[in-house]
Design a protein that fits this description.
Strand order of the largest sheet of chain A: 4-3-12-11-10-9
Oligomer: homotetramer
Distance between the termini of chain A: 36 Å
Radius of gyration of chain A: 19 Å
Largest interface: A-B, 36 and 36 residues
Number of strands of chain A: 14
Structural class of chain A: alpha+beta
Strand content of chain A: 15-25%
Helix content of chain A: 10-25%
Shape of chain A: globular
Order of helices and strands of chain A: EEEHEEHEHEEEEHHEHHEHEEH
Largest sheet of chain A: 6 strands, mixed
């Protein structure tokens, strides 16, 4: 459904963001155990009829590991860059430092349907459990999508979970990204990963973003001021573009919840480097988790003096986070194709040839 | 439906919590403009069949004012005492310092249905608005209720909103309180209010709680150690009772969001005085709002140098908050009648005669 | 110097706060490794001459363990109940989750002298270290003391550290407590401890408070409304009494920084039960640390899956914290003798006989 | 003393950071009422003898307005990017949303001397006041300076305050900046300002940084990857450079404390764009204040419905903050001359000709 292979990622243009090497597929799924699944919903066209369509939305599942997430929780942290958003489940993650369900991304008005379905999913695996904390992030795709129609249904959530794969590099108009706008161009899902330096350990850190934020004029690629040279003809309205961004960070390094909080706070740096500024109504949230530090049903955690990451080594994780966040955001724009949505609103895929021209011009 | 008139409030026992006078009805609805509505759902009995029942739950609406909440938002703040909970809408309130919908209370697994319905309600009043932040709090009534059945439906939410009244002193087994357990006795809804001292201004502060927390042994009334003398025969299991509490504070004083945050943090003191301790899994959340400080669609706020409450006067609001919180919690227990729920689980209404005896014994 | 043996602690009056057993001396020093030292400064009388006196102040050292605190840091957390205060070193504790110096308590205007001296002390033990985070708490003793005179000197800090003892039950007018006012009576230092239940492990939790907060009318002992019956003839002015309180919690249980944060937040409950309300200008701060979870120079931490405290067991630590905090606060008032300070201002020691009478009256 | 006129600011190189116009002098002192004063201490050379020297340090005063700061406080907010630092006074600013003293910057071990002196200064203006919250930020200049010697004395603090001027564009090796290292080059003080768009109002926003953070390899100027081409021969050790940065934001727009908090959180974006990453031990703190929203002794605040800045206009302040922060940081590096400090450690001023060459190469 999502044909995007003819659109390059930033690295395909010869631009390496930062200095650390990427994981095998330069995706959040490079982190061992992490799975990703997307269900994309694209139906109808023309005038908005709330409840009918057009539909330009979807749902994305990021699954920290393939086991039972409730009985084997992963250490986690939240950082709220700009709290103008409706994400579900954050308070409990902050308090307890763990996540006990897959993480879902969707549109603003579908988070409650998705949370509900996620409870069914986890409840089904854990009969008799009556307290479950679904974690669901959102961005607002109403500029293209019939958002009031809440077209994401329980079945889509379950499908995203069931079809989630161990290797996934889909980007742009997939899953929750279908109706999103990034830097006034078509935006959506982006991902990237980094390998930590050897002296820190044999670890990977991956980032997935749902990008619906930013002004065209501010967009930059590795510091090249793309937005000073290239803005879409049909610019999104100021109202339309202040959408928000969800940033999800995964690592297999056994970081504690407090350490993951420090890592999560560095996502802001990558966001800034791509040109975003968390404008007033852009709700920007970071969720970070470690598949390498788990809390079992017994109450035990898996971290030990032998595996504990010394605080001073966190700088390497900060760098990996910043680089992978910047790259994932840029990818989310480069890889998204033009989409026409409700009322004929058109979001242009950023023109690749022109971007490549600017890259050459600025970086020879 | 809820017959509770033969159960006294704490003040009917001759116990005045604190030193400030109460509002006319000693209820959160004493705060001008504030409305409260409850829909109680009680159906079936016997063995738990998820999806069927028995049903012991409900939904409560606290409406800051009778106008359009979205175009006339109220300044607000959140304090999270223990974040082990799933309440919806908190991040945006913290960031922007306002609430733009009625506040709903319900059971843990119904918050998403309720949030969804609340969006419909506000959207219906404001066509074309595609960003709405529903605020919904919850406690876990699964010890009595078929919580997985999610029996609170859209129609119940709308009814609670439509039937909300300007005077409401219902307590105990009403609305969201139907299935709750407080201090191992039957708990639920409680409310109280205080008048601020004249030199502060002609203001009222009211509190409503959804009480599902506490151990019997710790329950105290104005310092009288009720729990040392009186515990239910059928004590709730440790697991069952760690339920949580939602605390909602309203005032017509034009406090700023920052000042409301300070006020919200004092609810903990009232909670403590009633004997609660925010045990590990008791998710305790405070929502505070001011009907006297509004943010209009234009972007204007209503506060001015003339109406601004000097910081040093906040101590009076702190006292009012502590007193009303303590009293509302005690009321939530005193007023709740015995309820038999799923699988025959019985929560006893605290025996009034014995409580009255202890009050006499300890306070002559 | 400080004769207080003829004043009872609350437990000597037959009142047991809560249900958990105390440690051997019912003091923070019951926690293995924890040491406490006080230097009390009482000089001159009569009219206040800034820089000259009278002097009614001091400094208190709470030393987590007898080794090198910088190379063997202890896990720690901060909770700010009311941030109207000047304590030093909090941000770094919050960020890194550890404390690397002894914790000092003193008066508001002496924290910088004390911080400076503490840096010398730690620097002396660790030559070549140029980044040290001294943790110093304060309350305002200006109603009795020439606070602008800053009479606490480097030598007093070093003496408090050197003379700190493994058993210390001094309370009231000692160390930083010399010039403090609690509930409008003479206040100051108080301490208490609790043993954790066996199933949690063989752990102790201790609390030390520097109590300079509260109104007489609100003071209560185990729920007995002392303040409704007994207020000092020479009541402190509203201005004078809004002093603040420092609360320090120690445990040998190997809690993580995040878990210590949850524990620290429960100190508020003990504070509330004693009758305080964190009035506008009462800066109330909690510092919690674990001697059982250390961070070594190597970067290693000492916690392991075998020693990790399961989250659900934290409720026992919450109870211990609440009980010990309430008791330490009450002790700080009961044990403090009448003190006359600058300009002849007199703070009365609460009259023990009358308190004992009230205890008998209310509790048979 | 500080000759820097032959070193250009970034704008002198033809690089305009962002799109908003600067204030008259492109300095924090463009904000009406704001004054800045620096006292620079440079003495001795050769081997470090703690207590003797060499001295490479100083103190900087940022005075929000020329009146009595204590009786006319300014609304303010704090954002802690990385709390690994010792800044004084933050808790009270967070709680009350105001600043009541000038803001001082100095080295890590001198903050307590400076806080002490600042209390004397404010106390001298306000006899009989015994509660003052000095706000002092710090970075660690120990790689060049005898930091343990604490060479900043009371007299230097008072001089910085007294000599503070209404126009001040000094940068680099001045005041607290004397001994700092930025991106492994000589760093220190930098400043910049922006005019808000007309539709927001006739307001200015200014930023001053004390820059002691960053790796050479990461340094960028308006996205030009300077650090990929140019690193100092004598690179700072990893240990030495993780220094931290203080960021101070001033505006005359009457923002509330909550709104200033949102503004403060955008400083991170400017920091990121210059190439910093808040590495583990880089304590990065933001202080934001509004000279246009004051709190008077009477308790009144000056904001009104007429002057209140609608939330949606904050995006313009965010942009101004990001641009001015990025530019101030770049200026702090460009303007700082080579400095030789203790033990002959040399920090090179970044070579201007080479930077200019790179600017031409990358931007034609």
């Amino acid at each position: 459904m999502t044909v995007q292979h003819n659109r390059p990622r930033v690295r395909d243009m010869g631009i390496n963001i930062g200095i650390l090497p990427t994981g095998q597929h330069n995706s959040i799924t490079d982190v061992p155990d992490v799975r990703v699944g997307h269900v994309s919903l694209i139906e109808g066209e023309g005038k908005l009829v709330p409840g009918k369509g057009p539909v330009r939305t979807g749902v994305t599942a990021i699954i920290p590991h393939g086991g039972n997430m409730f009985t084997e929780k992963v250490c986690a942290a939240i950082h709220i860059i700009n709290g103008f958003g409706k994400s579900a489940g954050l308070s409990q993650v902050i308090e307890l430092g763990n996540i006990e369900t897959p993480i879902m991304l969707t549109n603003t008005f579908s988070i409650w349907t998705v949370a509900d379905a996620l409870v069914d999913y986890v409840s089904g695996q854990n009969p008799g459990i009556y307290s479950i904390n679904p974690v669901v992030g959102e961005c607002n795709d109403s500029s293209l999508n019939d958002i009031l129609g809440r077209h994401v249904k329980r079945e889509h959530v379950l499908r995203a979970l069931q079809e989630a794969g161990k290797v996934n590099t889909e980007e742009g108009n997939v899953g929750a990204g279908v109706g999103m706008t990034g830097f006034e161009w078509k935006g959506g899902i982006g991902t990237a990963s980094r390998l930590l330096p050897k002296d820190v350990g044999n670890f990977t850190l991956g980032v997935m973003v749902l990008n619906n934020t930013g002004l065209a004029i501010d967009f930059r690629i590795d510091g090249i001021p793309i937005g000073k040279e290239l803005v879409p003809d049909t610019a999104a309205t100021q109202e339309g573009i202040e959408g928000s961004i969800m940033l999800v960070i995964a690592t297999d390094a056994p970081l504690t919840a407090r350490q993951l909080g420090r890592v999560a706070r560095r996502a802001t740096f990558g966001l800034a480097r791509a040109g975003a500024m968390a404008s007033h109504s852009s709700g920007d949230f970071v969720i970070a988790f470690s598949t390498g530090n788990r809390i079992y049903s017994s109450g035990e955690q898996s971290i030990s003096p032998d595996t504990f990451i010394p605080e001073r080594q966190l700088s390497a994780f900060f760098r990996a986070t910043i680089e992978a966040t910047e790259e994932a955001i840029i990818n989310s724009v480069l890889r998204a194709e033009t989409m026409v949505g409700r009322d004929g609103v058109k979001r242009l895929g950023i023109p690749i040839a022109q971007v490549e021209g600017l890259v050459v011009q600025y970086r020879k």
